[in-house]
Amino acid sequence: MQFVEEIVVDEFLPTVRSLLAGKLRERGLTQSEVATVLGISQSAVSKYAHADVATNDRIATDERVEALTEELADGLASGDVTPVQALIEIEVLIRELESGGDLLAQLHEDAVPGLADRDSSFRIHDPDSDLRTTERVLSSLRRGLRLLENTSGFAGLIPAVGSNLVACTPDAADLDDVAGVPGRIFDVKGQATVPADPEFGVSEHVATVLLAARREGSDVSAAINVRYEPALLETLAEAGYVTAEFDESEAIERRIAETLADEPDATVLYQTGGMGIEPLIYVLGTDAESVAETIRSLV
């Protein structure tokens, strides 16, 4: 398994440093001065000068890389460009070359042939690709779950029906666009237990609350349910969260719509229970990690 970032570190950066070192030496800088400008050792500059560092010809001969290193060499040599400015320019070029179908993306696909076997419309490096989008959601969700698992006292907030931390894609339309924990999170002998890695389409209850809030214009992408306690609501309100009560029933979407019509800024929704219904608090937020951090503040 090789990530595109490894290609940046192992091939792109050594090649660009080598090009810059050579161009700066051509402009009259000493090895010591080149080392200072590039933030590397003199011995490293010497290795670049003697071609002792492996470089990538495809990167070195790319017109954009060549043009940028020429421009930066001129600026660094004259003092018109600072090392920080040069770093920013190189970072911008890296992001451009990582985009779908471009140089670094091609090198990555060459290093990991399986990527090229995907449908021709697929590009892992396209920031708008479905896979990148869903993986970002799952990654955020996993980080949020780790925060909760490592939060002492979180198990005490888990209701009898279990908790679930969920997150959705930016254009979520239905339950399949919401990821959560299969089987929910349960308190097992005082320890919050996450039974499986998060997946899409496995949460119904908390996902329904999240989607209902989004349909009413709420700018949220994640949610969790915890047990209801007036003290918890008070703590959240004191922290600046807008709370609102709704009547949980079979028409949950309509109930949330009515509630948010009165309190459009509410990100803490709660219901106090009823016949066969456990009282719960739902905390909503911009992403899974921020929701988990909110829960950590309660214990």
TrEMBL record:
Pfam families: HTH_3, ThiN. One of its GO terms (molecular function) is DNA binding. It comes from the Archaea. Gene3D superfamilies: Class II aldolase/adducin N-terminal domain (3.40.225.10), lambda repressor-like DNA-binding domains (1.10.260.40). Residues 26-48 form the HTH cro/C1-type domain. This is Helix-turn-helix domain-containing protein. It comes from Salinadaptatus halalkaliphilus. The lineage of its organism: Archaea, Methanobacteriati, Methanobacteriota, Stenosarchaea group, Halobacteria.
